[in-house]
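Please review the protein record below. Let me know how this chain folds according to its tokens.
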Amino acid sequence: MSVLSFRRGAVGVGAAAVLAATGTWVMWPAGVDAGLWAEVRPVIEARVAADSSGGGYGEAVPAWKARWFCLAEALELEEHAGEVRAGVNTLCVEYGVLDQSLVECGAGQHPQVVRLQRDAAADGGYRVVSREEPPDGEGYGRWTRAHFGVLVRSSLHEPMPSAALESAARAHFGLPADASVGYC
């Protein structure tokens, strides 16, 4: 290999590294303020759970006690002039009870952008003013590219664990901590 070929290769590798680093910096997820997240997370999870009702199998069976439980994971969190923009990944699972067992009747994991405003009268000091989620099908990729950076988008495909939701559902329905989980 000649010296000229080596230099061209080094320049090409260097240019690629600069472009990659610049792109990564521009698309790096915003830092998540743990204190702010602790304030807005319960408000987001309550709103997402309330909006989830109506689509699960458990609600269609009147004899069952069924309820949606939701978990939000912060991907991006910004506060500006009393308004918070939270880019989140959410997991919602509908649980019911059948023969003293927990039964999973429906579930969904979706990225969302939730906007909240400070409101002293609201429970938790914040209220949700808007919530967006991607459309099903073709528009999903376009929506996530428009709303999240490249590094955040890659985390959207990782499954969220449901153990905390199972524990919350068992407690809500008064089931033992080791009650089995079945499916509708």
